[in-house]
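Title: Comparing notes on inverse folding

I've been comparing how different people in this forum approach sequence design from structure. To keep things fair, I'm posting one structure and asking everyone to reply with a full sequence. Here's the target:
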């Protein structure tokens, strides 16, 4: 698991360096694990701009500009919130790419409508790129977090390959 993340982090770093691009992140349920993973690679200061762990709705609104209306209408775990988190991080850090993750890592906190493992992974880019994916992980809390980090980094690798 850790080795796979490190290898993925190195691939992302090499791709960002090749493109002279930077990345930032807005994380909720992953608690900073995306940035931790990216900064596990030496030289990451060349392409990691920074990030925000916005676990509470208040932090999502205050730090990332997620609208209260979005949170009221769709909830913190939603496609709309993931999109606004990514856009907010992109504006805050002025990076080329922003990743966002919001979800229910578990083991509690789920409902019929939004079960444990439900996660939205977003990515925004400085050239108008916006993409959000819905995932439903079926692992334990740590497994769900790791799966979300892997999915976010894979999403970035795909964007960098285009």
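Reply #1:
Here's my take.
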């Amino acid at each position: 698991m850790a080795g796979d993340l490190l290898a993925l982090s190195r691939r992302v770093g090499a791709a960002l360096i090749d493109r002279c691009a930077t990345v930032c992140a807005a994380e909720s349920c992953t608690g900073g694990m995306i940035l931790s993973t990216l900064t596990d690679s030496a030289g990451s200061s060349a392409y990691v701009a920074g990030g925000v762990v916005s676990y509470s709705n208040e932090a999502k609104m205050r730090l990332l500009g997620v609208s209260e209306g979005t949170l009221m209408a769709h909830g913190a775990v939603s496609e709309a919130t993931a999109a606004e988190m990514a856009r907010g991080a992109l504006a805050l850090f002025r990076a080329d790419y922003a990743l966002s993750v919001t979800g229910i890592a578990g083991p509690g906190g789920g409902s019929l409508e939004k079960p444990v493992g439900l996660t939205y992974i977003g990515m925004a880019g400085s050239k108008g790129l916006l993409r959000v994916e819905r995932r439903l992980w079926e692992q334990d809390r740590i497994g769900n977090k790791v799966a979300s980090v892997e999915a976010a980094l894979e999403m970035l690798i795909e964007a960098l390959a285009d």
